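Issue 218. Parser rejects a valid record. Input:
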Amino acid sequence: MATINANIVNTLGAGSGVDTKSLAQSLVDAEKTPQKKLLDDKIGSAKARISGLAALMAGLNVVKKAFTDLSTPSGVNSLSVVNSQSAAFSVSTTAASSTGLNSVQVISLAKPQTSEIQFGGVGLVGKDVDLAGSLSPSTAADGSLTVSMEVTVAGKKSNLEVPVSISNTASSGYKLNLDDFAAAVNKAKVGISANVIFPGQEAGKYKLVLSGPAGASNAFSISDSGGVTLDLPSANTVGAISQEASDAQLVVDGVLYQRPSNTVSDIIAGSTLTLMAPTIGAATVQTTRDVSTLKDKVNALIKAFNDTQSDLKILAGAKNSQDATDTYSGSLQNDPTARLVSSQLRAMLTSDSGTPGVNIKRLGDIGVTVDKTGVASLDEAKFKASTEASFDEVVRTLTGIAKNSDGKLVKGVTGAALDRLSSLMAPGGILLTASTGANSDVTRYTKQLGDLDDRMSRLLERYTKQFSAMENIVGQSNSLKASLKGQFDGMLASYKN
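Output the parser choked on:
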């Protein structure tokens, strides 16, 4: 390798006088440079295409979000509610809520039955009840003891098993723990809940409080069936029921209603009232349609469309020769993907709805237009007129889903647009397929570039060896020439003498 790397002319001081090292490198460069430039350009173009496709995907994500915001009736039909007594009740609306003025008076709330279990004639130490008296606990198969009780909630009967502990400290030999009782009730899921509380009036005195669902029809009772003498709450037990189950009463638009729950959704169409306290007289509820929210969402869609189309013009346009760092401009020039996406975007804004109304059939009917240059805009006067005159049709045209006469599922403007976008952006869609192809190109061209380097290195080595051999031959020829010349000169001199 020392012979290959050295300058032969300088080392030998003889030969052809040609710099064979430079000559070999020049010949290799002449062959390598155009091929390397071609591969570098291909790699650069593929990487630029990847960047361009990523930028396009980002723009389409913004368009997708804008269409998604308009894809449901609740997203289009935004309502504003003014409630004069919001501390007494709240109002939540849906896309089906009616607009107008309602009068609401909350007279009383729905309440659950609350009962306290009193243990008459038995001793109470902390949370343990000494089961003295006529005790006949049942024995389970595993040897544990239980007290059987019957729970009736809203007329439905259920059996309840409560564990009983064996205790040397209890006079009866058995004790009932309040926490165990509460746990058994809650675990049984018989329609009531139990809590152990400490009222605080008497030291060490705990109570077991049972609660059922709200509503008069959800009154409950408990009776023992295991021979335990307990004062258990029933519908007519004096002192056991601390709060009776009752229905909510309210007057809406002059009509008296009674409901078992404080959540009422079947009086004002599409709206739900959540009752929290009685009102002071009658409250007023004003429900109006908030068209400004819809307008903002439509304008957001128009902006997303225009921004993406503008990006497409840059991506598919001429390369920016003034800025070498600009990897986006021209990255999708003459790329069919860019042309397809641009035409699909335009179709999303201009196509007829699959669920049209009589007067509103497309976005253009609410004022959304796309001019000859591909720029979208909103005619505010037309938007105002269409939403005031045919708002229900606007909702259906944008968000509808139905079956046509052939039984095929058809969608409104937003649903159809989202399907188009999903097709473009899906893992097997045109964008990711193109990006995968471009990445494969980069890998292939990079390998070809490495192969070219290896091939040119071998070529340089071959040229260097060939030129070295040539130089040796020339050197030997020159030495022979000098030797012969000396001999001939000597012979000539001898003849002259």
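Fixed in the parser; the record now loads. The chain has a mean pLDDT of 83.
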